[in-house]
Amino acid sequence: MSQSRLRRAAVAFAALPLLALGAGQALAAPAPTPTPASAPAAVSKVTAIEDEVARTLAASLADPALRERLRAATATLADGAELARRDAGLPGSAARGLADATARADRGIAAAKGLGADLGPLLRVQLADPSMRAALDAGTAPLVATAGTDEHARTVRAYDTAGRARGLDAGTLPTRPVYLVDIDTAKALTAGIALLQRELAAQGIAPAAASDAAQAAAGWWGTKLTSVQVNDDEEPWFKGAAEMFSLVSGFGLDGKVRVDSVAMPYLQYDGTVYYPNQILVNWSNYKYNLADVVLMEDDGDTNYLALAQAVAAVLLTIADQGAYIPLVNAVLAALPTSWWTDDPDYVESWYTLARTSSGRLNGARGNGWMTVEPYWVSQL
């Protein structure tokens, strides 16, 4: 079954921090915030933390009462949110122990993604597919796995209630219930985009005040994204919904390379057309009538700090020569090598988007398309 069919069928019955779910098993303390040079290690750290949380949660589910509490919590979002509270009915010390361990895991993931340690809960758990609900309700003991980032994996490691690892076929939906431990990528994306823009500005890319003098009293021209689709890649059942963002690049009014990050949290499923009516480009920020767009995906392991620093290091070497220069290749050249191996964090790109561009624009990779139109944003 294709990922798009599974994703449209699957409802995230619960997305909750892993608090008050077990007997307080300890998790390893998070590593310090990585530098760009250690970005590949940071990626593996995210996977390792999620895997340890999955093992811990699976062992906790040996308790029948706890298993029932999680089953009920994943039935609706509201129930899941209720279970996440420390006063969810478990002994105080056990709830506090797992809450503290989960908080350490959250901080470790935030550090690996280059985000602040005060971001708050990032981990969540949900049933892998609604078809597993009947077996779960009938009392079948569940497995716990992670929504891994390797889309080409042949097997998925899951844990049973005895803490033993089991291999699941990545290409076949299991008949036994499986809970997936995943990152709240919507929350991480929001924080990551903010960090990305701050870091780029600090490096001299996309200066915050560059467009002030250009803002006409009556308003400014923008490019509105009216619809967009990314092709179906037949991804496996254990992949959660994607969280995407775009890097729009060109030359600013000061003649320096400029990059604007645009969050696209609605763009989650392959093979689905979205109609965001979103402003993609504010042309008052740009010197020339052309810009480029690179579409990226946060599969859970994206390190926004490393991304910003890598992109800035490459783009700062490009000087305005009095004419538009395509910047897509420079942005792609800045991506860490690991992003070209296991998971397609680079999704699609569009060259030479103009202020007057309209209609359907196919991506350079042939992996997606978007329709755009000029849009006048008037001041009140």
Automatic annotation (TrEMBL):
Keywords: Signal. Residues 1-28 form the signal peptide. The keyword Signal applies. Pfam families: DUF3103 (PF11301). It comes from the Bacteria. This is DUF3103 family protein. It comes from Kitasatospora misakiensis.
